[in-house]
Every structure is written in structure tokens, then in C-alpha cells.
Amino acid sequence: MRQEKNIFKIFHEVFLARPNFILNIDSNKVAKVELFVAKYATMDKFTSMQTFIKVAQVGSFSAVANQMGVPRSLITRQIASLEKQLGVKLMTRSTRSLSLTTVGAAYLEKCRVILNLVDATESNLAFEQSSPKGLIRIGLPLSFGIEKLMPLLMEFAKQNPGIELAMDFSDRRSNLIEEGLDISIRITSNPESNDIVRKLGECSLLTVASPHYLELHGTPNKPTDLINHECLDYSMQLTFSNWSYIVDNELKSFPITGRIVANNGEALVLAATKSLGVTRQPDFIVERYLKLGQVVQILKKFEGPALGIYAVLPSNRYIPHRISVLMNFLSESI
Fold it and tell me: Which residue of 79, 120, 214, 223 could cross-link 254, Cys pair, CB 3.0 to 4.6 Å?
């Protein structure tokens, strides 16, 4: 009898959390009831973890409740229950804001890894018998994403109707785990040592200027000449950097100067077409301006090694089937 009372106490808590939950209980089958409770507790933990991730991302109990179509009180109870089970405070709340504690931020990262693992396990169980399904959250570089990747991703979406795409366009370096991204496309000469990457292709950096600019200011014949020219520099920090070229079979860095710096290559090429200076941008940005004759390539024989186009994955070794399918598609298409 005592054992049954404990079981019914658990069911009471279940009904409080899930008011629409209905169950018929045979009191003579306590063992089966215990098995149900164990399974439900596991499912409920995963549900709470998913809710916690959503609240952390959105920063609002009410917004998450609206998204899920449930009362706000249910969301707050789930988070409170999770905190009680863990014995720690995951979030600090005020009337106007909600933020993660240090422990909460660490737990958020672990939740994402665990749920990714569950997702990957379920996806990979029978992937050969089914088409890829589910949401792919992907980070894309701005110009390359719009110019080259969007047509490919639209074709991928047509070929895989079970796939949903959530695309974040930005040239900043993303923290995939913190931002909840499944994959990010990054263009770089040197991937970070702790990044998990797969190389999808390559692109080249080209130094260009308008014919009119070169007519007015002369054509740089070697990298050291750039110090005497207006350079239009790409920088996420909005500060001038050095440009690297191969001289005497060695990659060397050369200082530049100028009046215009930006964190968007397309904008800088447009400035170059207006004869405002020399810029150095990836081929996928400048190729159409070269074809139109609005800019011409200079210092061609000094250009350095190609940049790599990489798929960057979160810091875990479990790759869901839908992500593998996307990487294979991009690798064959780029």
C-alpha cells in the first residue's frame, strides 16, 4: 500500500504539470505503473530541457508559451521543476529581464549536446530507409551566402521536402553551441584548431581597382606600392589590417592605408567601381564586376593561396543524418 501511495503521489505531480493528461490505473499492476513513471520521467526531463533551451534563446517565458500554445504558468513550472531536480538556479528573473546564471549557461551547452545526440541517434537509426527530415539551423556568410549558397540551398530544399531551413546571414564568427546552430559555413585560410570542419571548396582573393582610378593614380606593380594608394579594407573590427602576398616564394604581409574600411566586401567593391581606391575581395564578389569591366585585377602574380570554404560543426562528434546529407550536397555543388 505504501508503494502505491508513492506512485500515486508521482501521478499527482504529473497531473499538475500536464492538466490534460488522462490515465486509467489498475492498482493491482504497480510494476507496470512504475515502468510507465520511469519512462514518463525520462520524457519529461527531455521536454524540460527543450523548454529551457527555448526560454534561454528567446529570453521570455511568455514568448515561449505563445510559441508553444500553452499557458505561461506551465513554462515557469517546467523551469522551476528542472531547477528543483538539479538543485541549482538556472535563471535569474526580474519584471523586465531574464538571464542565465553561470551554472545555467554551462547547463544550456550540455543540454544542446545531449539533445543533439538524441536527435542524431534517432535520425541515424533508419536513415537509409527514409528521406532526411527536420530543422537545420545554418549560419551563412553574408555575400557568399546570398550570391552562391542561396541558389544551392533552395535546390536542396526542393530535393528534400522533409527539411526545414533556418538561415542566419552574418560575417561574424558564430559560436554554434551558444547560438543553437547545427552547422555554419565559414571562409578562411586557417580554421581554428578546435573547430570541427569539413572542407567544401575553395575561393581566391583578388586585388582590384577601377580603370579610372588606375589612370588617375597609376597601377601598383608590386605589393609594396600599395602603401602609396587608397586601400579599401575589409575588417570585422573596422580597423585597417595588412594584406598578404607571395613574394620570392614566401607569403609576406604588407601594410596598407586608406580612408574607407568596412565589414562587407560587396560594399567595398562598389566603392572601388567609383574610383575610390584599391580593394582585395573574394572572386565570388568581384567576378561580375570584372566581366562588366568596372574593375580590373592587379598584382595577379603575387596573390596568395586560396581560401578554404568550410562547414563548421558544433563541438561534438555526433552528426545528424540531415546535416551529413546537406554537407555532401554542398561539397558536390560548390
Answer: 223
**Beta pairing partners, 246:** 251
Q: Domains of the chain (ranges plus CATH)? A: 2-100 (1.10.10.10), 111-203+308-333 (3.40.190.10), 205-305 (3.40.190.290)
Give me the phi and psi of 134, to 5 degrees please: 110, 180
Place of cell 551554472: 103
Query: What does the pLDDT look like over 224-272, one tens digit per residue?
Result: 999 999 999 998 887 888 999 999 999 999 999 999 999 999 999 999 9
Helix 72-86 and helix 2-17, axial crossing angle in degrees, nearest 10:
140
Residue listed under C-alpha cell 538556479:
89
**Burial tier of 233 (Cβ tally within 10 Å: 0-12, 13-18, 19+):** buried
* DSSP for residue 303: B
| Range list of H helices, the chain | 2-17, 30-58, 61-68, 72-86, 102-125, 142-144, 150-159, 176-179, 211-217, 265-273, 283-291, 321-333
